[in-house]
Specification:
By secondary structure, the chain is an alpha+beta fold. The protein has 2 helices and 5 strands; from the N terminus they run H-E-H-E-E-E-E.
Amino acid sequence: MSFARLAKHLGLFVLLLWVGTGCYLPIKQVPPQSREYSSGLQDNFAPGQTSRTDVLLAMGEPDSVSFDESILTYRWQTIDGIIVVTQCTPPIEVTSETTLTLSFDEDGVLQDINITSS
């Protein structure tokens, strides 16, 4: 085998090792623009008893509000990990989102609490 051919194979092998050395780094971090979610948060609100004003005072401004203000939605995002493929590419964030949806009747009394995670 010639030296040029050996160098080519060695170069390809090193490149394959370098590309294949990606890794996943598990972390739990809240992005700066997001709130931190607490799993017992919905326990502070009771359907049929809690008013929209009580929720707004406790939670602050929602991320979205329905046109008739009967549904308030709060979202939390968490960075769960980072995937590093190579040293030449930026890391890829693996994120999840939790959504709390609160539904109110026409009198502004809480009727339903829905929590989803993705």
